[in-house]
Write a structure and sequence with these properties.
- The protein is elongated, with a radius of gyration of 18 Å.
- The protein has 7 helices and no strands.
- It is mainly alpha-helical.
- The protein has a domain of about 70 residues: lambda repressor-like DNA-binding domains (434 Repressor (Amino-terminal Domain)), CATH 1.10.260.
């Protein structure tokens, strides 16, 4: 399921990172706690419109542009979900469960590669 708060958080995080700014810098400029901003970026918290306006101002990102970017990401996520649903309904794909990855050792291998990087 596509969650608006996750897509919104991704857009805010991407904008902050493109600017080369830290959570601490943006949180101070937006007058929001670092922890709360982090939770918003991770899609764990729903931000009020006032808070979003403050974050957008701190990022020098027009709210309309942010909302447009979020809308685009939501559309892409919905299209992807639809494609996966069709593949699964046709029997061409099956969901991958974390347990299956662990049993086959794929999770361990992926973690080893990630740790080596």
């Amino acid at each position: 399921m596509v969650l608006l708060r996750r897509e919104l958080g991704d857009v805010l995080r991407e904008q902050r990172q493109v600017q080369g700014r830290t959570l601490r810098e943006v949180s101070a400029s937006a007058a929001v706690s670092l922890g709360y901003l982090s939770e918003v970026e991770r899609g764990e918290k729903e931000a009020s419109s006032e808070l979003l306006a403050s974050i957008c101002k701190a990022l020098d990102l027009p709210m309309g542009q942010m909302l447009s970017n979020v809308s685009h990401k939501v559309s892409l996520a919905e299209a992807t979900e639809q494609q996966v649903s069709v593949l699964m309904a046709d029997g061409l794909a099956k969901p991958i469960h974390r347990d299956a990855l662990t049993k086959t050792g794929m999770l361990r291998a992926a973690n080893a590669v990630h740790s080596a990087a």
